[in-house]
């Protein structure tokens, strides 16, 4: 199933910039910050890329998508339902516990947490990386160029705002499927 989906996305003209095998060991244990997130197709392209990376990848997705007939397919392919309406849903703690097992484990999260324009990203992706002691790896989806790639790893400090700025600088509205729905940070 995964190989078929990767092939379909590539046939649609997408270019995956994949690191050479073994050249990016940090991507075996990290939080992928995937952006811009302005359309459902971000998930479809992003999932194919995550599978092409050949990592133990998991994807946080709002629980409303876990319905018949796709629920089991999503669960079988590493998707994890998130209750976005509950700030105390335990997902940060659960993810940190998975990382603590010491095995290869990655989570792909869209820090915007919605396809609508937002000025402030959710901090769960940073909390997971900070508490688990793993890097944040920005995963960039560029719909205009039909390319997806990874930026350099960002190791969380104790300063969320400074780390968030580093992550946000990796993305531009022009990369989004719907550029008007992505609010860029002001660049100085």
Give the key terms:
188 residues; alpha/beta
Task: Characterise this structure.
The chain has 188 residues and is α/β, with parallel strands linked by helices. The chain has one domain. It is built from six helices and seven strands, in the order αββαβαβαβαββα. A hairpin with a 4-residue loop joins strand 6 and strand 7. The model has no long low-confidence stretch (mean pLDDT 87).
Quaternary: single chain
Instruction: Describe the main β-sheet briefly.
Output: 7 strands, mixed
Q: What are the secondary-structure elements, in order, as H or E?
A: HEEHEHEHEHEEH
**What is the molecular shape?**
globular
Percent helix range: 25-40%
What structural class do you assign from the helix and strand content?
Answer: alpha/beta
Question: Helix segment count?
Answer: 6
Low-confidence stretches: none
Q: Evaluate the radius of gyration.
A: 16 Å
Strand order of the largest sheet: 1-7-6-2-5-3-4
Task: Record the SSE blueprint.
Blueprint lengths: L1 H10 L3 E2 L12 E7 L5 H13 L3 E6 L8 H6 L2 E4 L8 H10 L4 E5 L14 H9 L3 E7 L4 E4 L9 H9 L20
Parallel strand pairs: 1-7, 2-5, 2-6, 3-4, 3-5
Antiparallel strand pairs: 6-7
Helix pairs in contact: 1-2, 4-5
Q: Quick summary of this structure?
A:
The chain is of the alpha/beta class. The chain has helices at 2-11, 41-53, 71-76, 91-100, 124-132, 160-168; strands spanning 15-16, 29-35, 57-62, 79-82, 105-109, 136-142, 147-150. It has one domain.
């Amino acid at each position: 199933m995964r190989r078929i989906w990767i092939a379909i996305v590539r046939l649609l003209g997408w270019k995956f910039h994949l690191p050479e095998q073994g050249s990016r060991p940090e991507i075996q244990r990290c939080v992928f910050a995937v952006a811009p997130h302005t359309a459902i197709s971000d998930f479809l392209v992003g999932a194919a890329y995550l599978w092409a990376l050949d990592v133990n990848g998991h994807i946080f997705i709002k629980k409303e998508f876990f319905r018949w007939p796709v629920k089991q397919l999503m669960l079988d392919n590493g998707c994890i339902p998130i209750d976005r309406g509950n700030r105390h849903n335990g997902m940060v703690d659960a993810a940190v516990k998975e990382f603590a097992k010491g095995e290869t484990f990655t989570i792909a999260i869209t820090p915007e947490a919605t396809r609508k324009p937002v000025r402030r990203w959710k901090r769960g992706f940073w909390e997971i990386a900070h508490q688990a002691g793993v890097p944040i790896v920005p995963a960039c989806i560029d719909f205009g160029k039909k390319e997806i790639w990874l930026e350099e790893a960002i190791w969380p400090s104790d300063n969320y705002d400074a780390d968030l700025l580093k992550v946000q600088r990796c993305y531009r509205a022009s990369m989004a499927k719907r550029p008007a729905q992505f609010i860029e940070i002001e660049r100085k």
